[in-house]
Q: What sequence folds into this?
């Protein structure tokens, strides 16, 4: 399995080629603490084109930075760098990756053909508003390359606020941009407030499984 | 090359060292006697610790040991791969830990004021007094534009930020003479004198073969989007149990929040003081250093 290395600022991102092929492109986003699957998941079997999995910053084979400082927006920019290489793609995101998939659907609608929001770790984030802060230090990473997943990623990306009305407003962004709106499909069964709000927006589809959603997007080019 | 640009009544720190925070080095500075009780000063976004060069000597002559630091990516602190509000808070705490484990007075300007308000909320045992200098964000009135128009602006914001992220791998700041750096800065800080901005540039910029560059990681950029809401910062204020002083400059500037006294008063903690300066802009401690020093010493006293 080939790894394509992409540079995002000071981070070297690992984009794993899970299946060679042509358009349409499918991009998999892992959940909090996970990494790209090593082989193509069974639910992607019927996909007619090329398939890649991205390791987010601090995860898998991508760089583990020193001193933390994670945000959902930075991970959205990881995905944008991958889309810069792949071109327009359909995206499946698990847990945290589902939230990031939603963000990039609104941030770069011209490069996102559709997103599938699936269950996985890190789905809820840090709730819907400001929370009490806990402050502590972790032992410094002394090596050039720390161990993935970065403990700071596990902590910080489980604490970011995900207000329901904010999620709803970014759905509307995905649909009203100048480029054709990226259809959003929710197939996660666990729905924290932000995802409940997404599912309730007009035009957002729901399916029971990822395959079902992908069967739809395979027909949308 | 040594440059010795001075500014009336400004003083460079007496001591400098680095504090390690999770593997990053934070440049830390002190003014005043090393054995005096400390007071911490936290600068704002895109600024450096030298912003305290006017206030710090005034506080140290009142008997305090003033401690300030360059935030990650700013001044002489390390460039980080990632930047976030939480990371800035942790870096601040590392500096606190390196100096004192007692409850000490804390001063913050702009974003630094918001950071220190959150630190006081999270670690009340580390803060004895809190001063917030024009760092009181408020609910901004919705601009008078149609909903679809606002959405279009927000979409453009996010795309511009993503475009910026794609370019940052080998980005460099634009070089120039100190005069040019000061003039560029004046566009954001129109109320600060050219002489001050040249002085600040002589400290906050470095000289390369092709000119001076601000020591600010070009990766960092203000984003106008995200889930955070300005008023969330104010929510941490009413519960503060330490003597509190907030200062608002009413002259509007690009970097300010446009907060009115009426926005802030309902959230003041018991006994909290709000000082409104009609003739000052965002950098109250640079425009009126004597007045601000008097106000601060009025709150924290003399050791």
A:
């Amino acid at each position: 399995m080939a790894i394509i290395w992409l540079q995002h600022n000071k981070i070297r991102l690992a984009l794993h080629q899970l299946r060679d092929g042509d358009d349409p492109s499918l991009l998999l986003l892992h959940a909090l603490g996970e990494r790209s699957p090593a082989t193509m998941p069974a639910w992607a079997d019927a996909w007619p084109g090329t398939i890649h999995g991205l390791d987010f910053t601090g995860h898998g084979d991508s760089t583990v930075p020193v001193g933390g400082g994670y945000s959902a927006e930075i991970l959205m920019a990881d995905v944008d760098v991958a889309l810069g290489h792949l071109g327009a793609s359909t995206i499946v995101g698990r847990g945290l990756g589902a939230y990031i998939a939603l963000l990039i659907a609104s941030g770069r609608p011209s490069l996102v053909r559709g997103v599938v929001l699936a269950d996985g770790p890190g789905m809820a984030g840090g709730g819907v508003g400001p929370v009490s802060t806990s402050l502590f230090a972790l032992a410094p990473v002394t090596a050039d390359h720390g161990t993935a997943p970065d403990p700071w990623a596990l902590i910080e990306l489980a604490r970011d606020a995900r207000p329901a009305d904010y999620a709803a407003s970014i759905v509307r962004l995905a649909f009203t941009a100048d480029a054709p709106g990226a259809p959003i499909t929710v197939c996660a069964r666990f729905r924290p407030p932000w995802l409940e709000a997404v599912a309730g927006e007009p035009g957002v589809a729901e399916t029971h499984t990822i395959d079902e959603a992908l069967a739809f997007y395979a027909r949308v080019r | 090359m040594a440059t010795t640009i001075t500014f009336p009544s400004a003083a460079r720190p007496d001591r400098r060292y680095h504090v390690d925070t999770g593997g990053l080095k934070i440049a830390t500075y002190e003014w005043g006697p090393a054995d005096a009780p400390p007071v911490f000063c936290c600068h704002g976004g895109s600024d450096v610790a030298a912003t305290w060069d006017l206030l710090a000597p005034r506080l140290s002559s009142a008997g305090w040991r003033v401690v300030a630091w360059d935030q990650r990516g700013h001044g002489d602190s390390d460039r980080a791969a990632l930047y976030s509000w939480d990371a800035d808070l942790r870096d601040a705490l590392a500096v606190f830990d390196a100096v004192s484990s007692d409850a000490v007075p804390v001063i913050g300007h702009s974003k630094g004021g918001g950071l220190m308000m959150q630190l006081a909320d999270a670690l009340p045992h580390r803060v004895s007094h809190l001063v917030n200098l024009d760092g009181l964000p408020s609910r901004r009135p919705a601009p008078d534009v149609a909903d679809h128009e606002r959405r279009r602006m927000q979409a453009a914001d996010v795309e511009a930020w993503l475009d910026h992220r794609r370019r940052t791998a080998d980005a460099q700041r634009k070089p120039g003479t100190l005069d040019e750096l000061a003039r560029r800065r004046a566009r954001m800080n129109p109320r600060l004198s050219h002489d001050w901005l040249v002085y600040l540039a002589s400290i906050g910029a470095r000289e390369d073969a092709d000119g001076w560059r601000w020591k600010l990681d070009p990766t960092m950029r203000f984003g106008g989007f995200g889930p955070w809401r300005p008023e969330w910062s104010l929510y941490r204020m009413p519960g503060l149990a330490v003597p509190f002083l907030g200062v608002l400059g009413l002259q509007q500037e690009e970097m300010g929040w446009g907060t009115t006294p009426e926005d802030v008063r309902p959230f003041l903690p018991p006994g909290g003081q709000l000082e409104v300066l009609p003739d000052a802009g965002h950098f109250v401690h640079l425009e009126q250093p004597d007045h601000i020093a008097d106000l601060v010493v009025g709150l924290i006293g003399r050791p």
User: Anything to note?
Assistant: Residues 147-213 of chain B form one domain.
